[in-house]
Write a structure and sequence with these properties.
Structural class: mainly alpha
Radius of gyration: 22 Å
Helix content: 40-55%
Strand order of the largest sheet: 1-2
Distance between the termini: 51 Å
Shape: globular
Largest sheet: 2 strands, antiparallel
Oligomer: single chain
Order of helices and strands: HHHHHHHHHEHEHHHH
């Protein structure tokens, strides 16, 4: 799994963790007293070393709470084994062992193994913030978060027809008719499978584009280039010419009649 895909999994885990943390702070009517800074692991990886520790008690300001959640999500996620950090629908479809390991509900042995890798400093710091009565509360708190993360990461992709956007996914105009663009052009499907560019379940993914942006995409690259290199809106928007086009065409509006 690429670093971009692993980052998506981190973002997903942070989102799952944020729900119960935000709820606990919302239910806490008094500002928790800060006894100590969140403790980090002794052997940080570089990515964790560079993460700033929350400098204030994150009970009131959204930005401070966001920093708090990001810190603990990083601490916990980086402690996971690689197979948990990189789990996805594609992975479990192609690896029976991982499909059995990450089924719903997670087996007690799997949960126990995951919890054993979480740094003790996580429970200590959350207790210091007044979120736990004791460090023994961590499993009860973290198991539902872990299950939600695994379920979301391994969920089958949606039916592409249900992904219809209310605005063009390139120029963001929301008042103009939309067309669907096959991110992996149908003429390339056989080649995409044969050459290992994509798995079959991804072939019918679409983006919802206005006609002007749809035409622009097909002018900027061949079908093969689109299938191999630009098979998502995110990848399309990494191109400077697409960003410039979106900025320009987004200002084009019809006169009211």
């Amino acid at each position: 799994m690429s670093s971009d895909e692993q980052r998506k999994n981190f973002d997903l885990f942070r989102d799952c963790l944020s729900g119960p943390l935000v709820q606990r702070f919302a239910l806490d009517k008094t500002k928790p007293s800060r006894k100590r800074k969140p403790k980090g692991r002794k052997n940080h990886s570089k990515s964790v070393e560079n993460e700033p520790e929350p400098s204030v008690t994150p009970s009131s300001q959204g930005e401070e709470l966001g920093e708090f959640i990001d810190y603990f999500a990083t601490e916990i996620f980086q402690s996971f084994a690689e197979d948990l950090r990189t789990v996805s629908y594609s992975v479990v479809q192609n690896d029976l062992r991982l499909a059995e390991r990450f089924h719903d509900p997670l087996a007690p042995a799997v949960v126990e193994h995951v919890l054993a890798t979480v740094p003790p400093s996580v429970a200590e710091s959350l207790e210091a913030y007044g979120l736990f009565d004791s460090q023994g509360d961590l499993p009860k708190f973290l198991i539902p978060v872990l299950q939600e993360y695994v379920n979301a990461a391994t969920a089958a992709p949606p039916l592409w027809s249900s992904t219809r956007s209310s605005a063009c996914e390139i120029c963001d105009r929301d008042w103009i008719p939309l067309t669907y663009h096959h991110l992996i052009p149908r003429q390339t499907h056989a080649k995409a499978i044969k050459r290992g560019w994509h798995e079959e379940w991804r072939l019918n993914s679409v983006a919802w584009l206005c006609r002007a942006c749809h035409n622009f995409v097909h002018r900027m690259a061949t079908n093969e280039e689109l299938a191999r290199d630009y098979w998502s809106v995110e990848r399309l928007m990494e191109r400077e010419d697409v960003v410039a086009w979106a900025r320009w065409v987004g200002r084009v509006r019809w006169k009211a009649r």
